[in-house]
Amino acid sequence: MNDLVVNLARWQFAATTIYHFFFVPLTLGLSVLVAIMETLYVTSGNEVYKKMTKFWGKLFVINFAMGVVTGIVQEFQFGMNWSEYSRFVGDIFGAPLAIEALLAFFLESIFLGVWLFGWDKLPKKIHALSIWLVALGSNISAFWILVANSFMQSPTGFAEANGRLVMTNFWDLLGNPNVWVQFPHTVLSGFTTGAFFVIGISAYHLLKKNESDFFGRSFRIASLFGALSILLVILVGHSQGQHMVKTQPMKMAAAEALWDSEDPASFSIISIVDQKQQKDLFSIRIPGVLSLLSYNRFSGEVKGINQIQAEYEDLYGPGNYVPPITISYWAFRVMVGVGFLMFFIAAFALYHVMRQMDLSKMKFLKFMPFAILLPYLANSSGWILTEVGRQPWVVYGYLRTADAYSPNVTSGMVLTSLIGFVLVYAILMGADIYLLRKYAKAGPKLVESNENHDDDSYWN
User: Fold this and answer.
1) Residue 28 · residue 190 · CB < 8 Å
2) Calpha distance 104→145 (Å, rounded)
3) How far apart are alpha carbons 354 and 377 in whole angstroms?
């Protein structure tokens, strides 16, 4: 029964997290792009940039609202389904979450209101500053969430006392090396998401020759922003992988289906594994490449699943310390494969922009709207790898997931809330997609008509 409760609670947290994470990256990236557009309007005085700011800002606000609604549930689950986790690390985990709410969330919420209702009421520079503060608040919010998550991945700045973990050094918590590879990777992934969102919608309108100057400028800004962002995502991701080899070797071994330690270590092109039999049913590997990725040289040991399992049994006692290999393996490949695909798409778009070519005649332009989905696929698979690859730990090395659930919660309770959340979130997701699609397809004219309909605000 306990296993059923734990699994249902894990499914609920996974479902609500993935739903929420559909909205977060677009908030991170689109807020910065809207701020850039308004800055161009303030510095150039060109009205088309004001028009762009309002149009893309409309889509940003729709997405932001859904992100807030789905995010609130996340923190409640720690008390509902994971009370033992909250008891064990609440003194540490609660601090960054509280700062995120009191500092970052209030910052972005307050100045979003200033920005929404301050058009033509505030000086241009002050109004532009407000959207930059929204973007700053959104990204600071991500920082504090990742401080909390990084403690789960690689605990620092704590001591054990009376069966709990207590904070001993707040600055060690902030200086956790895991934060400084995870945070830039996540934020830059958000920037990429925002860029591909703008590229895809702009490509749709360029194909239909709607507002060519408007969407041509949007396409150019997003192409430069997106190409730079995805390049940095790949570079930071490389550093994050090397950090993972040091701090979570089992996660890397699972992501590579590496059963036994190798030096030099081979990189898997494709593997079909049988986790129960602890063997590959089929595998194609390239010698030395995993060592190159791990140490920047074609030599260096990467530990295998069997050796790490034996080490962990000696260190933590009997048990299964191997995460789900198939999920970890394919999540890693989807994330990396889609990431490089986005890099080539962004580079291809930027090439046409830099050559000042007619964007409406660009080859493969008709496929660009579908590229909007790529960052979501990469983001979701990346988080699946991050969380599933950490199993069986909820706090790495200190608290197992099976020991973190709420003992008085029944499977019926969790199943009921799981079904309820999935249904409600599905409705919210449908509403979000409907609104985004409606305004994205209509273009800036619909935003302008709303503005003219109500002199106080075009958002009504």
Assistant:
1) yes
2) 10
3) 28
Tokens of 146: 């990742």
Lookup: tokens for 184: 């830039």
The predicted-structure confidence for 172-204, as pLDDT tens digits, reads as follows 999 999 999 999 999 999 999 999 999 999 999
Question: What does residue 151 show for φ and ψ, rounded to 5 degrees?
Answer: -65, -35
Alpha carbon distance 138, 148 (integer Å)? 16
Residues 6 or more apart whose Cβ sits within 8 Å of residue 44: none
What does the pLDDT look like over 355-402, one tens digit per residue?
887 777 777 888 999 999 999 999 999 999 999 999 999 999 999 999
Do residues 451 and 54 lie in contact, with contact meaning Cβ atoms separated by under 8 Å?
yes
Tokens representing residue 145 in the block: 């969430």
**Would you call 156 helix, strand, or coil by DSSP?**
coil
Selection from 138, 116, 396 nearest residue 246 by Cα: 396
Contact assessment for residue 375 and residue 132, using Cβ atoms and an 8 Å cutoff: no
Say whether 398 sits in a helix, a strand or coil: coil
Sole residue written with tokens 């709410």 = 101
**DSSP one-letter string for 400-431:** EGGGSS-TT--HHHHHHHHHHHHHHHHHHHHH
Nearest Cα to 308, choosing from 288, 283, 325? 325
Task: Report how far residue 108's alpha carbon sits from residue 232's, in angstroms, rounded to the nearest whole number.
Answer: 25
| Nearest alpha carbon to residue 438 among 15, 59, 53 | 59
Helix (H) and strand (E) counts for the chain?
A: 15, 6
Tokens representing residue 282 in the block = 């089929």
Sequence-separated (6 or more) residues with CB below 8 Å from residue 219: 198, 199, 202, 203, 206, 349, 353, 359
* Torsion sign (Cα): 89, 91, 92, 98: positive
Q: Rounded to two decimals, what is the model's pTM?
A: 0.92
**Residue listed under structure tokens 């070797």:** 249
Dihedral sign (CA 151, 155, 157, 160): positive
d(CA 18, CA 25) in angstroms, rounded, equals: 11
